[in-house]
Amino acid sequence: MKQVLIVVDMQEDFIFGSLGSKEARSILPAVRKRIEDFRAEGGSVVFTRDTHGEDYLSTREGKYLPVVHCVKDSQGWQIAEGLFKDGDKIFDKPAFGSPLLAEFVREEGFGRIEMIGVCTDICVVSNALLIKAFCPEAEVCVRADCCAGSTPEAHDAALETMRCCQVEIL
Prior knowledge:
Belongs to the isochorismatase family. The chain is of the alpha/beta class. Helices cover about 40% and strands about 20% of the residues. It has six helices and six strands; from the N terminus they run βααβαβαβαβαβ. A six-stranded parallel beta sheet has the order 3-2-1-4-5-6. The longest helix is centred in the first third of the chain and has 19 residues, at about 20-40. It is globular and about 45 Å long. The model has no long low-confidence stretch (mean pLDDT about 95).
């Protein structure tokens, strides 16, 4: 069965920058190890990257979350050092979820999709549910110890929401 590991938004701004948190920093070693182990098992690794323009504060999202982050080509937009390798695919996404990512997963015929990253309650859940919609028979899993939410409570709530939607929580 073809497998893919999707690493959601493990970017400088979500770990160390304007929206960084101790929870995101605390999962970084586990995320790094999971990526290394997955590559060693022969699986494909794909990244998403939250991507905004200089006009972020004037966007709908910027009005609800008025913190400039992940501006394209900025240091905060970069994937955390040591995670990405040449040959990995990246999906830049201007919104929480990426239909292009879900379409890619369907077209490639992945039977097992594992997801890790940030924020559990925003981008991880959005992408997990999109992938479930595009690939209803695929096994979609989220590794809880390799995810961090905007708060610990939001993380737990998102895990429960995904569990209710037949996403396996590891």
